[in-house]
Design goal:
Elements lengths: L1 H16 L9 H5 L6 E11 L4 E10 L1 H8 L17 E7 L7 H8 L6 H15 L4 E7 L7 E8 L4 E8 L1
Antiparallel strand pairs: 1-2, 2-6, 3-4, 4-5, 5-6
Length: 170
């Protein structure tokens, strides 16, 4: 009986840790909004290797109030990203279509090769989204735009109120 209880507790902890959101606690400074209201969210991820190489895609459905607060801000700047031993650069929020001088950043994130059908579907949606006008995007990258080693890409579709957040590490 005790083993069954311990096993059940382990399974519960394991499954609940799988739903942990990578970006959730950082959305307020990323969007520059005091209070981010999330109506729904989904996390899709894949990790490989001992170095922590991997891919995370999170989709947040935001409240209309959160999106309008973001849109109405005169300055849409990402906060500086400081991490010991890592030289992060940033590209502040801009409207789509994307700046083609940063193609390597988008190629790295949006051409990610996955066996997950859910990830493939979401990436195809994002590719279509960044080709049309009216969405917003920003990102962090390191070490440079020609050969990024790590990218955190954010795309906000104001019509669907979806924020796509991607962390790609190689």
């Amino acid at each position: 009986m005790l083993y069954r209880l311990i096993f059940s507790a382990f399974i519960f902890l394991f499954l609940s840790s799988c739903n942990t959101s990578f970006f959730k606690d950082d959305l307020s400074p990323i969007l520059g909004v005091d209070k981010v209201e999330i109506e729904n969210n989904q996390t899709l991820d894949e990790w490989a290797g001992l170095q922590g190489d991997g891919f995370i895609l999170e989709v947040y459905e935001l409240s209309e109030k959160t999106v309008q607060t973001f849109i109405n801000q005169p300055a849409k700047n990402l906060p500086d990203k400081k991490e010991e031993g890592k030289n992060w650069q940033k590209y502040n929020w801009n409207k789509t279509p994307v700046d083609s001088s940063y193609n390597e950043v988008f190629i790295m994130c949006l051409n990610y090769s996955s066996n997950s059908e859910k990830i493939k579907v979401q990436l195809n949606e994002i590719k279509k989204l960044i080709e049309k006008e009216g969405a917003y995007y920003s990102f962090y990258y390191r070490p440079d735009k020609e050969n990024p080693q790590n990218v955190q890409l954010f795309i906000l579709d104001v019509q669907s109120r979806k924020l796509y957040a991607i962390d790609q590490q190689i």
